[in-house]
């Protein structure tokens, strides 16, 4: 008995809330990636000693506020950092653990 090929529906069944949440999840993933990169760059600059104490304080405060805002946005859409961590297959995951 030969099996008939599965037909792909011409239209995806989605609801507006699901689409909004998935789009927001993607945007938050990008923001989290940039936040982690900024944090690593800031730490590197602190380690190199090319920042004043005032600049270090400003960086720390800015990164702390960004992290707090991310936590609030994730809570609003019931997301965790693990939800934002896209699996890239053999390359591993997108975000640092």
Automatic annotation (TrEMBL):
Domain of life of the native organism: Bacteria
Keywords: Gas vesicle
Protein location: Gas vesicle
Matches recorded under InterPro entries: GvpK
Primary localization class, coarse: other
Record-linked Pfam families: GvpK
Keyword Signal: no
Family: Belongs to the gas vesicle GvpK family.
Name of the protein described by the UniProt record: Gas vesicle protein K
